[in-house]
Design a protein that fits this description.
The structure holds 2 protein chains of 2 kinds.
Chain A: H1 6-35, E1 36-37, E2 41-42, H2 45-52, H3 56-88, H4 93-105, H5 108-125, H6 131-138, H7 145-169, H8 172-181, H9 186-194, H10 199-215, H11 218-223, H12 228-236, H13 240-266, H14 269-279
Antiparallel strand pairs in A: 1-2
Helix pairs in contact in A: 1-13, 2-13, 3-7, 3-10, 3-12, 4-7, 7-10, 8-9, 10-13, 12-13
Chain B: E1 12-21, E2 24-34, E3 39-43, H1 50-58, E4 65-70, E5 73-74, E6 85-88, H2 100-104, H3 106-110, H4 115-128, H5 144-156, E7 162-166, H6 174-191, E8 194-199, H7 202-208, E9 211-216, E10 219-224, H8 226-231, H9 236-241, E11 246-253, E12 256-259, E13 262-265, E14 275-280, E15 285-289, E16 295-302, E17 306-312, E18 318-324, H10 325-328, E19 336-341, E20 347-350
Parallel strand pairs in B: 3-8, 3-9, 6-7, 7-8
Antiparallel strand pairs in B: 1-2, 1-4, 4-5, 9-10, 11-12, 11-14, 12-13, 14-20, 15-19, 16-17, 16-19, 17-18
Helix pairs in contact in B: 4-5
The chains are: A mainly alpha, B alpha+beta.
The complex binds adenosine-5'-triphosphate and magnesium ion.
Adenosine-5'-triphosphate binds near residues 46 and 47 of chain B.
């Protein structure tokens, strides 16, 4: 702080305040709009109605299940790949980075069109083969695995970037070799020596994936499934107050989940001990 | 000189190790034997294959051909985690998420030693490296020297048969480097563990090792005790790499060489050409003031008990000579002097084109 000029010192709170207003004013307005009904005073009617509306719980649970599955798929796919890349083929990194960024440049509409085409192969060409059953299972509306696969692809750019940043901060090769010379096999070295030091990066990758899955609308809607985001749009159509209440609620749900994830990630013995140890002389 | 080996001390043998990376040849047929309980320093210029050799013994690198033997058993294809080799790395390699005790206890944990037992062992080892009171610290709370001590304790935790040190001191400042290198030597003697110590600091190698192996271009140039390496280098490369060496033009006459107006016996092989370079240590040159001579002192450097003079000879060759400081006091840069070699056998080398 000492090095800051008075001008910077004055600007900081100002910028922070402006940014805060930019986010908070619409939010506050939304909340007021949903709870302050003209002629009836303060009421939480809009919110209780949502929870009572058909499909609320099923769609929310579906979204959470999809998010959990997507996080698992993305991490199981990316972590070994990223570590192997660092250890074995550092020169391939730009290639992998480019591939992982591809989903950013493909518009969701095009992506869905592609998925739709592939899904149509099922009934058109494979109806006599056992593979047909796989195609049916992929699209089971109770748990559409095809969405997990699609989301895993869409989350790749974000998750990859988060992991890469984490890997950059640790010397993976040395950690693995140190663990191996201490008698750990290759997989154990990865799990006991590298992963604990990537906790922050894994959390970030999980956060971003979770946020993406909870908010994703286009792909789910066009493929005809009904996770939380699609349900919100469907129920909010006619009723102004309820539609805003639903948005506020979905925001809250996402926040609570992110906080819960952060809490789970930070509350580990290692982290706690590190914090207390810092205080001792 | 070699300390009495403990029952577990191992013999290590490299046999014709060869390894290429793309177009670079890291090892070009390395042969080397390390005796049980010996501390052997691998010395050589950057890129000569020291780290590659060490990593092959650790199991992190596989040779294209040749083999690595520990106590006569071929371990070339044994994976790293079953090699029984403790390693200290050049870069800081402690596990950042574990405190010192858990870092040292990592190996025993992998071998399924009980928690209480492995923590007792870890505390003992931390005591051995002088960090008994720092067990609950995390790596980021330690200085570089302390981190390398913990790394040493961690490498010793599984009672390995071989200890591998890859420039463990190179990231440390000069003073810490000196104390830690003495400490490594003390601990190594105490445990009598066969140790390979990679360094490119010749002073470090000469002062700590039982024997020093000088490498060049992926091959062994000479392996000998420090005094022998310094006093009787086998090749011109070793002579110039270990200690300071001046090259002075000379002329061969059968088994003798004429240099600076003196005839000296030739030590070892002589090249075919008659015009050669004679290799002379600074302490083997005498310098006396002589106004009539055309050799001149270019610079003087005070080294404590001795002073090193840089002298430019009549043919513009620059040589280094060490004089007792009290004798050198009478001389200054710019003075005309005579330079004479002491009467003893000298190494000669082909004159570079
Ligand atoms: N994994 C690798 N890929 C490509 N080349 C390598 C690899 N490891 C080593 N080399 C090359 O092999 C040669 C020997 O390397 P090595 O690390 O063994 O040298 P060194 O003697 O330890 O040198 P330094 O004193 O600089 O550490 C060098 O030319 C190096 O560039
Ligand atoms: Mg090296």
């Amino acid at each position: 702080m000492a090095g800051l000029t008075p001008l910077t010192r004055a600007w900081r709170p100002a910028v922070l305040g402006l940014a805060g207003l930019y986010f908070l004013v619409p939010l506050a307005a939304s909340v007021v709009f949903t709870v302050d009904v003209p002629g009836r005073g303060l009421t939480f009617d809009a919110y209780t109605r949502i929870i009572g509306t058909e499909g609320f719980l099923t769609s929310l649970l579906l979204s959470l299940g999809l998010a959990a599955a997507t996080i698992a798929v993305v991490l199981l796919l990316l972590v070994p790949a990223a570590v192997a890349l660092r250890l074995g083929a550092p020169r391939l990194r730009p290639v992998v980075e480019a591939v992982c960024s591809l989903p950013l440049v493909v518009p969701p509409i095009a992506f869905v069109a592609g998925i739709g085409t592939v899904l149509k192969w099922g009934p058109e060409h494979l109806s006599r083969t056992p593979l047909f059953q796989t195609f049916v299972a992929l699209q089971n509306p109770d748990f559409p695995v095809v969405l997990v696969l699609a989301y895993a692809v869409m989350a790749l750019p974000f998750a990859h970037r988060a992991l890469d940043a984490g890997l950059r901060a640790v010397d993976v090769r040395t950690l693995v070799e140190a663990a191996r010379s201490c008698g750990a096999g290759p997989v154990r070295a990865l799990v006991t020596a590298v992963l604990p030091n990537l906790r922050g990066a894994l959390m970030n990758a999980a956060f971003l994936t979770l946020a993406l899955v909870l908010g994703e609308y286009t792909v789910a809607q066009l493929l005809g499934f009904r996770p939380f985001a699609v349900w919100i749009v469907n129920v909010s159509g006619s009723q102004a107050q309820m539609s805003v209440a639903v948005s506020v609620l979905s925001l809250l749900v996402t926040w609570v989940l992110l906080l819960a994830l952060a809490g789970a990630g930070g509350r580990t013995p290692g982290a706690r001990r590190a914090r207390t140890a810092k205080g001792t002389p | 000189m070699t300390p009495t080996p403990t029952p577990t001390a191992a013999t290590v043998e490299f046999r014709g190790l060869r390894r290429t990376f793309g177009t670079t040849t890291a090892l070009d047929g390395l042969d080397l034997t390390v005796a049980p309980g010996e501390l052997l320093a691998l010395l050589g210029p950057s890129g000569c294959g020291k780290t590659t050799a060490l990593r092959m013994l650790a199991g992190f690198e596989t040779p294209d051909s040749g083999s690595v033997l520990v106590d006569g058993r071929d371990v070339t294809r044994v994976p790293a985690h079953r090699r029984d080799a403790g390693m200290v790395f050049q870069s800081y390699s402690l596990f950042p998420h574990l405190d010192c005790v858990d870092n040292v206890a990592f190996g025993p944990r992998m071998r399924k030693t009980g928690r209480a037992e492995r923590h007792r062992q870890a505390a003992e080892l931390l005591e051995l490296v002088g960090l008994g009171d720092k067990g609950d610290r995390y790596p980021h709370q330690l200085s570089g020297g302390q981190q390398q001590r913990v790394a040493l304790a961690r490498a010793l935790a599984l009672r390995p048969r071989v200890l591998l040190l890859d420039e463990p001191l190179s990231a440390l400042d000069a003073k810490v480097r000196l104390t830690l290198r003495d400490e490594i030597r003390r601990i190594q003697r105490e445990l009598g563990i066969t140790t390979l110590f990679v360094t490119h600091d010749q002073e470090e190698a000469l002062s700590t090792a039982d024997r020093v192996a000088v490498m060049r271009g992926g091959r062994l140039e000479q392996c000998a005790p420090p005094a022998e390496l310094y006093g009787r280098p086998a090749t011109a490369f070793v002579a110039e790499f270990v200690g300071t060496m001046s090259r002075i033009p000379g002329r061969l006459h059968g088994g003798t060489v004429e240099v600076l107006g003196h005839r000296l016996p030739v030590d070892g092989e002589a090249p075919a050409a008659r015009e050669v370079d004679v290799l002379v240590r600074p302490e083997d040159l005498r310098v006396t003031a002589d106004g009539a001579c055309s050799a001149r002192i270019v610079a003087t450097a005070f080294l404590g008990a001795t002073t090193r003079l840089t002298v430019r000879l009549a043919d513009a060759t620059e040589v280094k000579a060490d004089l007792p400081t009290h004798e050198a006091a009478a001389l200054a840069a710019g003075d005309a002097v005579t330079v004479a070699p002491r009467e003893r056998p000298v190494l000669v080398a082909a004159r570079p084109a």
